[in-house]
Amino acid sequence: QVQLVESGGGLVQPGGSLRLSCAASGSIFSIPAMRWYRQAPGKQRELVAGLTSTTTNYADSVKGRFTISTNNTKNTVYLQMNSLKPEDTAVYYCNALLALSSTRVINTYWGQGTQVTVSS
How buried is 113 (Cβ within 10 angstroms: 0-12 exposed, 13-18 middle, 19+ buried)? Predict the structure, then answer.
């Protein structure tokens, strides 16, 4: 099947940077879109950034600070987070819309989440 494996979370001071990675593995035919979401304690999960072959989009709260990108094979998505603020503290989840080689049907898949804590 498909796995989305995230890495790169941790504890950082305000103003610092982190880079999250999410690698998709398995029998994948295509990945039309990959996104990063986050969920802070007591809050709903929210979209942080998204990427397709032609577009990127960002939540207003992270524009100018976060950058989403992908590697050459398009199976790994990154989230470069700069100028981090305490309010960026959350569990960050990778999400992919992808089609399996066996079915060619697009479904949504989630990673396990990685904790990002911004605190002095």
Answer: middle
- Look up residue 2 and give its two tokens: 């498909």
Q: Which residues neighbour 44 within 8 Å (Cβ) at sequence distance 6 or greater?
A: none
Q: Is 72's pLDDT higher than 80?
A: no
Task: Tally the C-alpha atoms within 13 A of residue 93's C-alpha that lie toward its C-beta.
Answer: 15
Reading phi first (left if > 0) and then psi (alpha if -120 to 50, else beta), residue 6 is in: beta
Over residues 29-43, the pLDDT tens digits come to 999 999 999 999 999
Cβ–Cβ < 8 Å for 89, 40: yes
CA atoms within 13 A of residue 69's CA, in its CB half-sphere? 7
What's the rounded Cα separation, in Å, for the pair 120 and 42?
A: 21
Which parts of 11-93 fold into alpha helices (H)? none
Alpha-carbon torsion (90, 55, 16, 109), positive or negative: positive
C-alpha 78: how far from chain center: 7
